[in-house]
Every structure is written in C-alpha cells, then in structure tokens.
Amino acid sequence: MIERTLRILARVFGWIGMLGMFAMLLHVSIDVAGKWLFGLPLPVTIEMTSHYYMVAVVFFPLAAVEFRNGHITVEIVSQYLAPRIRRTLIGLVSLLGVVYFSILTARTWHDAVNKYEIGEYLYGTVPLEIWQTRFFVPLGCGLLTLVLLWKAIMMFRGEERLIQEGNESVELDEA
C-alpha cells in the first residue's frame, strides 16, 4: 500500500516535471520565433524559464528517478560485495539521504512560506509572482525523502528487487 502510493505520487510528480519541460520548450520556441519572425519576443521568457520551468523540471521528478535507481552512482567497490552487505550499504546511504533531504525540505518549506507571506515577485518588463515556485523544492525533496525512507526500510528487510529495478549500468570503454 505504501509502495503503491509512493509510486503513484512519484509518477504524478514526474509528469509535472515533464509538463514543465514541455512548457519551457514551447515558451522558448514561441519567444525565439516571435523575436526573429516578427520582432516581438514574449515578455518574461527568461524569468518564467528560470523561476518556474527549471525548478519544476529539476525537483518534481526526483522521487521517480530514485524509484528507477536512476541517480548517478559509482560502484567501484560495492559491486563486488555480497548482496546482504550491498543491501545494508544501500539502506545506510538511503538513511543518510533521508537526513539530508529532510533538512533541505524543512528549510526550503520555511523559505517558501516566508516568500508566500510577503508575496514575492520579480520586477521585469511585467511584474511576475514567483512565490508559488518556492514550494516546488520542498515538495519534490519531501517526496524523495519519503521514498528514501521507504527504500531504507526495504533494504534492511532484505528486499533484493529494489537493487536491480531499473538499474542500468554504463560501461566506460578504455580507449
């Protein structure tokens, strides 16, 4: 039940990140076309890209990537360890991630609430409210924290399938 809920939330957040990528692609393309074809670029393109789209693209998919074991890992020694030791190591590293990302979540949530209370916005060609995007970081990091906690518990319980799930290793050629 917990795994299913976390996977659904991670999938939804991943889709939000993809929608952010698509919106950024569309917005920038229209801006460039408008600038070169008609001499009329879209206002606030840079601000929307840096304060809305990029934040969504980076932070919303974090949990979905973790479920796929898609974050960058370096397995110089751990690939030669016994499965039980590898699970323990992954569990400990996941707990370290829980500590780090829970602190990051709490701190960025505090900042987001503060920016909400003051109604943060940017002055540009058009005033743009940006306080809303301050919540993207703690939401994405918060879900990642829950996924890492669940993963740590599963590793300590001996769940082997999580190690292999979606794990694609890349071999570097020695040229």
Task: Write a brief caption for the model.
By secondary structure, the protein is mainly α. 68% of the residues lie in helices and 2% in strands. The protein has helices spanning 2-38, 45-59, 62-67, 83-118, 136-156, 161-164, and strands at residues 121-122, 128-129.
Give an overview in words.
It is a single chain. It is built from six helices and two strands; from the N terminus they run ααααββαα. The protein has about 180 residues and is mainly alpha-helical. It has a two-stranded antiparallel ribbon. The radius of gyration is 20 Å and the shape is elongated. The complex comprises the extracytoplasmic solute receptor protein and the two transmembrane proteins.
* Biggest sheet architecture: 2 strands, antiparallel
- Report the average pLDDT across residues: 90
Read across the widest sheet, the strand sequence of neighbours is: 1-2
Percent helix, as a range, is 55-70%
What is the overall shape? elongated
- Give me the Rg, rounded: 20 Å
**Number of helix segments?**
6
Structural class: mainly alpha
- The N- to C-terminal Cα distance equals 48 Å
Work out the number of β strands: 2
Low-confidence sequence ranges: 169-175
What letter string, H or E per element, gives the SSE order? Answer: HHHHEEHH
Q: How many structural domains in the coordinates? A: 1
Name the beta content range.
Answer: under 5%
Subunit structure: The complex comprises the extracytoplasmic solute receptor protein and the two transmembrane proteins.
GO biological process, one term: C4-dicarboxylate transport
GO molecular function, one term: transmembrane transporter activity
Subcellular location: Cell inner membrane
